[in-house]
């Protein structure tokens, strides 16, 4: 058996055996994929061993079964594609998209104001983890005082009553690496559709006309 190819990075090291008998090029192909995203290499290695090799099998025994090599590469590619997609959907800074805004903004939210906000919170895969719309009860809090996550304190600031925004909030402005089990995993980017209902008990004026701005994130 030839020497192993090591792909370092992430939380561990993945050793890809350069098996003979049709294995040439598998290690380098997976290595190229692994270089494009950050994954837990040790977890990947254990997954491949668990899914591909039964307890009595060894790399030497599997050399006689070239189809296993293809399965290894397929598993590797699938895991890397999932990790890549998640990374692409994540954000490192707060992103604010204005989806709907009154033509006139007679009342807007400032630090220290008592605001009511309707919202729908989702993960990057589209999973809804909370929604005030379904409950019919908007959340009420004092803006800019730490009563909600930092992404909200920053993302609602300056919003007009009746305005709708989409907030993409990085984990550092959300629930951080610990998350909020069981609904929000650690390190998760959060997506909120928000609507400012009132500021200090004052709803939007009936004279305000809605204007669909349509800035999507």
Describe this structure in words.
The chain is an alpha+beta fold and 217 residues long. It is built from six helices and ten strands. α1 runs parallel beside α4. The N terminus is likely disordered.
Would you kindly provide a brief summary of this structure?
With 217 residues, the chain is an alpha+beta fold. Helices cover 27% and strands 26% of the residues. The chain has six helices and ten strands.
Helix content: 25-40%
Q: How do the SSEs run, as a string of H and E?
A: EEHHHHEEEHEHEEEE
**N→C terminal distance:** 51 Å
Tell me, rounded to a whole number, the average pLDDT: 76
Q: Determine the number of helices (DSSP H or I, runs of at least 4 residues).
A: 6
Proportion of beta-strand residues: 25-35%
Task: Outline the secondary-structure elements.
Blueprint lengths: L4 E5 L2 E5 L9 H9 L6 H12 L6 H4 L3 H24 L5 E8 L11 E10 L4 E4 H4 L3 E4 L7 H6 L8 E6 L20 E10 L2 E2 L6 E2 L6
Antiparallel strand pairs: 1-2, 3-7, 3-10, 4-5, 4-6, 4-8, 7-8, 8-9
Helix pairs in contact: 1-4
List keywords for this structure.
217 residues; alpha+beta; two-stranded antiparallel ribbon; 10 strands
């Amino acid at each position: 058996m030839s020497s192993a190819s090591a792909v370092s990075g992430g939380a561990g090291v993945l050793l890809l055996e350069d098996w003979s008998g049709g294995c040439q090029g598998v290690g380098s192909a997976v290595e190229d994929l692994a270089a494009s995203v950050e994954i837990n290499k040790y977890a990947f290695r254990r997954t491949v061993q668990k899914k591909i090799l039964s307890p009595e099998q060894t790399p030497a025994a599997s050399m006689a079964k070239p189809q296993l090599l293809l399965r290894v590469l397929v598993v590797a590619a699938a895991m890397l594609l999932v990790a890549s997609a998640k990374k692409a959907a994540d954000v490192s800074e707060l992103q604010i998209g204005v989806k709907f805004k009154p033509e006139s903004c007679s009342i807007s939210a400032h630090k220290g104001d008592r605001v009511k906000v309707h919202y729908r919170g989702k993960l990057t895969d589209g999973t809804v983890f909370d929604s005030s719309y379904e409950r019919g009860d908007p959340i009420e809090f004092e803006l800019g005082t730490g009563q909600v996550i930092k992404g909200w304190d920053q993302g609602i600031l300056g919003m007009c009553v009746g305005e709708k925004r989409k907030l993409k909030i990085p984990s550092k402005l959300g629930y951080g690496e610990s998350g909020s089990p069981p609904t929000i995993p650690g390190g998760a980017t959060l997506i909120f559709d928000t609507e400012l209902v009132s500021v200090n008990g004052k709803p939007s004026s009936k004279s305000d006309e809605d204007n669909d701005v349509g800035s999507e994130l």
